[in-house]
């Protein structure tokens, strides 16, 4: 009888591994702590509060995409560019905070989910959309 190889999640099984999710969450906490301490010397980031909303880590744990937004708005493009310039320093700090053999390369991108949620909320407040939604609820056939 052949031994079955234990699956760690793959495209073949259709189930993703939870390891990238756990690593991403640990990196998110570490980055939030580092950014909260204000250790970066970049003038664009000085005094800037930055929210790290999500970190998506590649299945091979070699790359991480960090979704950020400046708290209270601001120049998101400038903040993202400054964070990408500081990525090597931040990666070294993440290595110290998170127990990994090798820290993933960090890439910072703007988090647009808040804007998207705001647009949906505005659309739902539109009287025409509200009327359609209420009509669909009242119709038992729908």
How does this model look, in words?
With 142 residues, this protein is an alpha+beta fold. 46% of the residues lie in helices and 15% in strands. It contains 5 helices and 3 strands; from the N terminus they run αββααβαα. The chain has helices spanning 19-37, 76-85, 87-97, 113-125, 127-138, and strands at 50-57, 63-70, 105-110. A 3-stranded mixed beta sheet has the order 1-2-3. Helix 1 (19-37) packs across helix 3 (87-97). The longest helix has 19 residues, at 19-37. The N and C termini lie far apart (54 Å). The relative contact order is 0.13. The model has no long low-confidence stretch (mean pLDDT 82).
Task: Kindly summarize this structure in a few lines.
The protein has 142 residues and is α+β, with helices and mostly antiparallel strands.
Compute the CA-based radius of gyration: 21 Å
Mean pLDDT: 82
| Shape annotation | flat
Based on secondary structure, the structural category is alpha+beta
Number of helices: 5
How far is the N terminus from the C terminus?
54 Å
Low-confidence stretches: none
Strand order of the largest sheet: 1-2-3
State the helical fraction. Answer: 40-55%
| β-strand amount | 15-25%
Q: Give the SSE string.
A: HEEHHEHH
Number of strands: 3
């Amino acid at each position: 009888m052949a031994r079955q190889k234990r699956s760690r999640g793959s495209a073949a099984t259709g189930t993703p591994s939870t390891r990238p999710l756990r690593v991403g969450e640990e990196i998110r906490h570490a980055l939030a702590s580092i950014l909260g301490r204000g250790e970066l010397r970049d003038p664009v980031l000085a005094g800037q509060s930055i929210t790290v909303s999500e970190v998506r880590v590649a299945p091979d744990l070699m790359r991480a995409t960090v979704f950020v937004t400046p708290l209270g708005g601001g120049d998101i493009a400038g903040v993202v560019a400054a964070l990408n310039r500081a990525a090597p320093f931040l990666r070294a700090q993440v290595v110290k905070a998170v127990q990994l053999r090798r820290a993933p390369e960090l890439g910072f991108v703007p988090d647009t989910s808040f804007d998207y949620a705001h647009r949906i909320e505005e659309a739902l407040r539109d009287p025409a959309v509200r009327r359609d939604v209420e009509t669909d609820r009242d119709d038992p056939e729908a």
